[in-house]
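Reviewers asked in the last cycle whether our approach scales beyond single polypeptides. To address this, we selected a multi-component target totalling 703 residues and predicted its structure end to end. The input consisted of the following lines:
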Amino acid sequence: MSETMANDYLDCLLNALPADSWNSGAQDRLDWLRRLRNEAIDQAGRLRFPTVKDEEWRFTDVSPLAKLPYKPAQKTSALRLSDIQPFCIAESAHRLVFVDGFFSPDLSRLSKDNQFIIGNLAAPTLTKTPLAEAHLGQHVQFRDNFFAALNTAFLQDGALIVLPENCAVSAPIHLLFIATQEQTTQYPRCLLIGERNSQATVIEDYVALGANAYITNSVAEFSLADNAQINHIRVQRESGSAFHLASSAVALEQDSQYRSVSITLGALISRFNLDVEFNAQAAECTIDGLAMIAGRQLADTHTRIDHAKPHCTSHQQHKCIVDDSSHAVFNGKIIVRPHAQRTNSSQSSRNLLLSGKAQIDTKPQLEIFADDVKCAHGATVGQLDNEEIFYLKSRGLNELIARNLLTYAFGAEVLDRIPVPSLKHTLEQAILNKTTQNS
Amino acid sequence: MNINQNPIILNVDNLHASIQDTEILKGINLTVRSGEIHAIMGLNGSGKSTFAKVLAGHPDYHVTQGSIQYEQQDLLELSAEERAQAGVFLAFQYPIEIPGVANSQFLRLAYNTVQAKRGKEELDPLEFDDFVREKMKLLEMKPDFLDRSVNEGFSGGEKKRNEILQMALLEPKLGILDETDSGLDIDALKIVAKGVNHLHNTGNAIILITHYQRLLDHIVPDFVHVMEAGRIIKTGGKELALELETHGYDWIHNDQKRAAGAST
Ligand SMILES: Nc1ncnc2c1ncn2[C@@H]1O[C@H](COP(=O)(O)OP(=O)(O)O)[C@@H](O)[C@H]1O
Ligand SMILES: [Mg+2]
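The resulting structure, written as structure tokens, was:
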């Protein structure tokens, strides 16, 4: 795409910026927010719309996005609870629902006796929280990420979770983002602030009603203070015609533990950036991912783990299953800074090709500047094993079932790490169904 | 050697089979009647596992000559899964590990698939659980083994027991056990032998592939065949295994030479 096209795209978007509550009126207390958005608008203007000439976007051509007139989504007539029922998660006592990016109090479920803050970022009481100002836009690198800059420029509703010191939330928190409109862009946003010794499980879930083409441009920021422990399950099950562009940024303080499982099933083109930053010693992260795609889908995952401090541990397992003419991209960067001694890091990228026309590009990138470190990494690309298929057939299973079972088993290792049984079960079924359809 | 007029389960006639254009089986003849136990012995590389895999329908092997009749059907016309459904069972010399598939899930899927094809009753997870645990007792298997992935991280002995468990569930007409005794200590061997004897009856037949006489102390064969270079070069009763144990495989060659010398 030419630069003019890119700038036209941005102009077109910025003209469409709605006059929302944050821009209107003299709300001095929101100066910081206006500043943040203005800076993001400037950055989005400075950064170009990425093309395949950019190293970071080499395999992922997002030009189809700019060709379509995706205007910001509008607030729509309310959905009913029955519409979202299929997406609800039995174990979760706390649910925030966003329809096309807009918070829906009616569909959300919040228990009254909360020991923690949960709600819409744009709600005046929440925006006032000094913590929101201290963290919003401070972790995601929107200064070198065009789509994160756009998301920040369009910032309106979003999920805010603040876990006070020593607060342990046992039931999973479900953040449900539902897309319902054709040819629009939604800008979901999440901010989680976990204070010292806090614990929670958060499900960030992107779904669609119908098979619309639309754009989701989302940003999630997670900040974990000393000894905070957060499970983060991210599910991308957008419509098969959608575009999904997302960034997650995680900041870890001392002894904190961040465990995430990211599942990518939907969208025609998707790009997920996950950045984890170790800001203090002895923190740990486990980030696992599974992308299972078919047809002409493209799923790109870029992760970056920055061991900026000594004595931290990171484990990563990323798996892709590609069928038909689909294309999966994985780029996993691990940086170990010069003083980050006694870093322990492992990364594994395993890929299953189910069709001769499918494509995998996997690139582990280790940049190690410290000497006393333990770093292991590996990448494999393979097909289903004929001896395994024969073994199953010799027990009476037909070829199709044997192949489906083995494909499912390949992905199950990642699904098994989801600590929410009903969600795990739903995703297992989704993967089994997807396998069956593709065969 | 028994004189058995039971129906023929398997009739292999002049079987030749190749892998990647290399001929491995060079004219095997074998008749197995129901109620019989046949042992096939022979040095490493003589083609025993190849024969077993050809019977089970492994796609890498091509039959270039000869025929296999199984229960009045042309076995070579059937796919691997159809053979299993029709009652052919191979206990693998090297059982395959399948990470991510729980043993319980796999066993139930196999059991129900085969039951459905045979027009018999399928079991729901709870019923199956009771059923499989009963069978596991016979093989003295630990219950936790149901929750583990198929063969993943199993010891050699556990893998072999898992094969026999599958045989117990699928109730084959023709069980082919490829070196099920290798790598088993004597206690495990006795357990496996007890399991096999328990499954054996006048309505089915077993082919035991083994190197060692010690298995045949516990599962007594009606016939012993010696394989070499893709052929069965000698057939006898159970005493043949003892003679092999005492004299080694070279003895057969000398024996054959003597026989050849005597006849001229
Ligand atoms: N995939 C293969 N390609 C070529 N030769 C093979 C292959 N598999 C087995 N063979 C050969 O076939 C012969 C018989 O092997 P096998 O049936 O495993 O013997 P056994 O079970 O009696 O030890 C051996 O010489 C072996 O090297
Ligand atoms: Mg062998």
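The longest strand of chain B covers residues 8-19. We regard this as preliminary and will revisit it once experimental data from Aim 1 are available.
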